[in-house]
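Ticket 4471: requesting a sanity check on a complex prediction with glycinamide ribonucleotide. Repro inputs:
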Amino acid sequence: MSQPPKRVALLISGGGSNMVALAQSMTGDHPARPVLVLSNDPAAKGLARAAEMGIPTAAVEHRPFKGDRAAFEAALLEPLLAAEPDVICLAGFMRILTGAFTGRFAGRMLNIHPSLLPKYPGLHTHQRALDAGDTEAGCSVHEVIADLDAGPLLGQARVPVLAGDDADSLAARVLVQEHRLYPAVLRRFVAGDRTPVIL
Ligand code: GAR
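Returned structure tokens:
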């Protein structure tokens, strides 16, 4: 008997291009379906894109919580738990989550990060790669643990750094690969295979 599809919640903060790539991949014989797109910013453009795709959306603005991460996360949990996700994909979600929150979803929360981890956790990854004189850059998908941008690697894609690159041109080249890598990892992950995807 075939299994019911895995339920995937996607957390975003901005444009949501990775969310769109993931949602578009979850059709046909894919073993998962998107059940919620959740943002910390009610104005996130990705929320409108998700709604156009017919995916339920919710927003919990972080600003009124004034840095009280526990209270923000308690509010975030309400729509998230109501969606009964099996897997949570952070897809350009730009809030740091506490260990209490990440621990609750241990082994079933993924993140995409625009660097070849363990290089350049945190922000400004592309500029840091350029400043270091790196000849290649890329993106990583990993399981989320309490430490920022750390956790078991589930996939990486590499791109060359080209002469004349600036942070924007490099980010654009990496983003194309993000849109290939994250769906490939998710598909493998929901099938129970955590072997890293290398593109
Ligand atoms: C992506 O490049 C993603 O890797 C990055 O934010 C961008 C979101 O774009 N995430 C991080 O930097 C997380 N630390 P998107 O909203 O178009 O998917």
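Notes from triage: The pocket of glycinamide ribonucleotide is lined by residues 12, 14-18, 46, 91-92, 112-114, 139, 175, 178 (CB under 6 Å). Leaving this open until the requester confirms.
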